[in-house]
Design goal:
Oligomer: homodimer
CATH architecture of the largest domain in chain A: 3-Layer(aba) Sandwich
Helix content of chain A: 40-55%
Catalytic activity (chains A, B): L-alanine + 2-oxoglutarate = pyruvate + L-glutamate
Shape of chain A: globular
Strand order of the largest sheet of chain A: 1-7-6-8-9-10-11-5
Distance between the termini of chain A: 40 Å
Low-confidence stretches of chain A: 1-40
Cofactor (chains A, B): pyridoxal 5'-phosphate
Number of domains of chain A: 3
Pathway (chains A, B): Amino-acid degradation; L-alanine degradation via transaminase pathway; pyruvate from L-alanine: step 1/1; Photosynthesis; C4 acid pathway
Structural class of chain A: alpha/beta
Strand content of chain A: 5-15%
Radius of gyration of chain A: 24 Å
Number of helices of chain A: 19
Organism (chains A, B): Zostera marina (Eelgrass)
GO molecular function, one term (chains A, B): L-alanine:2-oxoglutarate aminotransferase activity
CATH class of the largest domain in chain A: Alpha Beta
Mean pLDDT of chain A: 91
């Protein structure tokens, strides 16, 4: 069960819960009208919402919540009756899913995957006309890493050893500090790694996990599902979503005073949904804090390639801690990485890894055991994770095209971030911090009282009310800030920077027109 | 925490736990010798085995347990010092991982996956020289199902709708009863589906799940991880691992008398590790029983293609219940399917689905929410699941080769099962039931008292002792029966039928020679 430590947070953090996901109240063995059976029937099931695991009922995941369900309905309406709505397409800005909005995959990565899905291609004389020479070479090398060249077999539960070696080399090259294949656990995207660590650390609701607010709701959902307590620390919007150690310390002490054993600190860098990139000094403070307070540092570093400003760069927490002289013996640190983000955006491939350092062999053995219950992560995702951490190098045939594709995507994302940021800031009563990294804007809506009352009247959080009105008027799907948590009494939306660049001007025009009408209707 | 209801079971079901996974005892913030850091250091971590989630410590998964770790050590020894052991290769008969032992993938499936990993291939003039025409056509059709043709995007949380339609058609064709795409949840292999249902049904250790004993340890592990109680029912070895409703009823009543709310019945058909195929009448009894007792029926049907005897055929529980006139309104039924098994054996692809029928819309909404927290299963795995349920048809260019590959694999598996069964039955004091289906033999070892005492003397379960001796002498890796559960006082091993056919005679020779020496040493 999710317990929020701060009463202030408790009151409003997830105040829109009833709007995010509507739970039909039912009584035991009641008869239902089934929407799922082909012929409509009534259901008598021994299982009802009242008798399932209450942690599941409590869990929320706004990124795919009610607003998205509504968008899907509208999309169907558009297909069935074109011209029936005030827009002709739905623009999904709710989720970091680049390829769904037209971003193209990196050719080299896909060539290697294609070859390894059907290794007989490597022997075909026509193959060289269809694939680059370095993708063929890479596929051969990877095939040699796989026992029996069996790309269809379960691998070692941590993933194929040779791929983990490549990833460790990539980490070492990135950080300038050594990395070890034995520390890498390949996972189906970053999410299963997060779940695994929450499952490991949480024993009961008396165990707490410090999470930033706003946060990516995987964290709140996972803590809820595993029965722990989310201990919120607030990022400071006024300083560009700054992470103040004094705030973290205050919340930690508050939690401890309530009997909570705080086990870990989650840091998302670059920030989701907030888009800030942590400064090196700030990261050092965080490392010191975790060591001093005996906290595991859970570092969500899935946006490490997504940096859009010149004055910031990504530093992994492993690099920071090693540069401070701290080793495996000093800090328990888990870094999460994914193939879904970066310039590649291969969300559907479900590849990723966690680098687990600073745990005893006995605890690592337990992590290995949990990984082994699920046998292994998917092999194409494992391969892709190794490619992302070990892309083409200068001199490789694919290097030029790879590099052009990567730079094209990242520079376009930077331009889109800036255009949308400027657009939000041009709106009446809206302020928006810079997207330094990641894939999101998190503008604050200073909503008029009249709008807040109108939202309350329909039992909806004001930001959810705004998001719904925006969707109905423009087809643009954003997620209400209440799905991520926010300082009580403030209202935000999360909007991705992912629509293709040629669509951005149209989005801005629609957004501005909507906002003007909204303000005209509700201005106090 | 896993509680076993039957005291008899409690005593011995997992009696070899200490041998399956050795847990290093540690005290809080003790210093450890780390095997993971590149330079050996001592670890001070806020996390110890005593302070992690005790459900994880309790959980066991013998299929990748101590015996496999030992085998990996021996394999390394062989590589480093060839000729140093009495055998020259390790034969992994511990896990249903066909391609790791040389089984080749189905060409058509891999062609489609290869094309969809790199769709520009579909436009290449050389492509037709490398791929069959129906794989190109199928890849085109699947591409059209995917919004924006984006094979790298997250899909709908249940999986791509068009693929679910294909799977539903495949189920309908198999069963002769309609199936609905809305009921299909695509998953990364079958395991995440099982976890999802356990998470849904288990609220506390007072919730019980009826599981066959012997069982596939995913079930015991998942029940333990989710904090429930495994309620064992014993399969009857004397009748070919028969499932007697009277035994299930007895265990159900026993559990209820102890205050356990029994929520579901797990049936594995064809059986793992036991290899039996349920008769239709027996399945009807099970359906009636679940309806009468208000139990969800969790049907593990991942071996549905693996039937090796003429007098048995696979019937899904959905088909059985529908043929009895029971619909969605009468029985809550979940069927698990996987791309890892069958004739295709694509374990590393982590594809699968669960078909969820007979739950209220409100409960299904909760299942959908949990699925959405992890976004979606991997797209290549989703595609493969659709191919498995909708393979080439008569008249398609690939049909002949597909059909020859499939029949070749299945008939060879049947021959291997029979050869190994005969071999086990020829051993002194060993009896082995027929492998009617699935991928395993589960012979019973009637061990001499002297062997049992020798095992006890080294604090090992007698079957684990035998398995270890077998491995050390022959390189053959099998899993002790204690990892699956067995009637107390009986001892078994699970051995897959998966080594390639030309290796079977050698395996049998080594097995017989070992067993004779073992019996000569320990015969009473």
């Amino acid at each position: 069960m999710l317990r929020l430590v701060s009463d202030r947070a408790k009151r409003l953090l997830f105040s829109s819960s009833s709007s995010v996901l509507t739970i039909t109240s039912t009584s035991a063995r009641m008869r239902f009208f089934s929407s799922s059976s082909t012929d409509k029937t009534t259901i008598t099931s021994p299982v009802t919402v009242e008798t399932i695991n209450p942690k599941i009922v409590k869990c929320e995941y706004a990124v795919r919540g009610e607003i998205v369900t509504h968008a899907q309905r509208l999309q169907q309406e558009l297909q069935e009756k074109p011209g029936s709505l005030p827009f002709d397409e739905i623009l999904y800005c709710n989720i970091g899913n680049p390829q769904s909005l037209g971003q193209q995959p990196i050719t080299f990565f896909r060539e290697v995957l294609s070859l390894l899905n059907h290794p007989p291609l490597l022997d075909g004389s026509e193959t060289h006309a269809l694939f680059s020479s370095d993708s063929v070479e890479r596929a051969f090398n990877i095939l040699e890493m796989i026992p029996g060249r069996a790309t269809g077999a379960y691998s070692h539960s941590q993933g194929i050893k040779g791929l983990r070696d490549d990833i460790a080399s990539g980490i070492a090259a990135r950080d300038g500090f050594s990395a070890n294949a034995e520390d890498i656990f390949l996972t189906d995207g970053a999410s299963p790694g997060v779940h695994m660590m929450m499952q490991l650390l949480i024993r009961s609701e008396n165990d707490g996990i410090l999470c930033p607010i706003p946060q990516y709701p995987l964290y709140s959902a996972s803590i809820t599902l595993h029965g722990g307590t989310l201990v919120p620390y607030y990022l400071d919007e006024a300083t560009g979503w700054g992470l103040e150690i004094s705030e973290v310390k205050k919340q930690l002490d508050d939690a401890r005073s309530k009997g909570i054993t705080v086990r870990a600190l989650v840091v998302i860098n670059p920030g989701n949904p907030t888009g800030q990139v942590l400064a090196e000094d700030n990261q050092k403070e965080i490392v010191e804090f975790c060591i001093k307070e005996g906290l595991v540092l859970l570092a969500d570093e899935v946006y490490q390639e997504n940096i859009y400003v010149d004055n910031k760069k990504f530093n992994s927490f492993k690099k920071i801690s090693r540069s401070m002289g701290y080793g495996d013996e000093d800090i328990s640190l888990v870094s999460f990485q994914s193939v879904s983000k970066g310039y590649h955006g291969e969300c559907g491939r479900r590849g990723g890894y966690m680098e687990v350092t600073g745990f005893s062999p006995a605890v690592r053995e337990q992590i290995y055991k949990v990984a082994s219950v699920n046998l292994c992560s998917n092999i194409p995702g494992q391969i892709l994770a190794s490619l992302v951490m070990n892309p083409p190098k200068v001199g490789d045939e694919s290097y030029e095209s790879y590099s052009a594709q990567k730079d094209g995507i990242l520079s376009s994302l930077a331009r889109r971030a800036k255009s949308l940021e400027d657009a939000f800031n041009s709106l009446e009563s809206v302020t928006c911090n810079k997207t330094e990294g990641a894939m999101y804007l998190f503008p604050r809506l200073h909503l008029p009282e009249k709008a807040i009352s109108a939202a309350r009247a329909v039992k909806t959080a004001p930001d959810a009310f705004y998001a719904r009105r925006l969707l109905d008027a423009t087809g643009i799907v954003v997620v209400p800030g209440s799905g991520f948590g926010q300082v009580p009494g403030t209202w935000h939306i999360r909007c991705t920077i992912l629509p293709q660049e040629d669509k951005i001007p149209g989005i801005i025009t629609r957004l501005k027109a909507f906002h003007e009408r909204f303000m005209a209707e509700y201005r106090d």
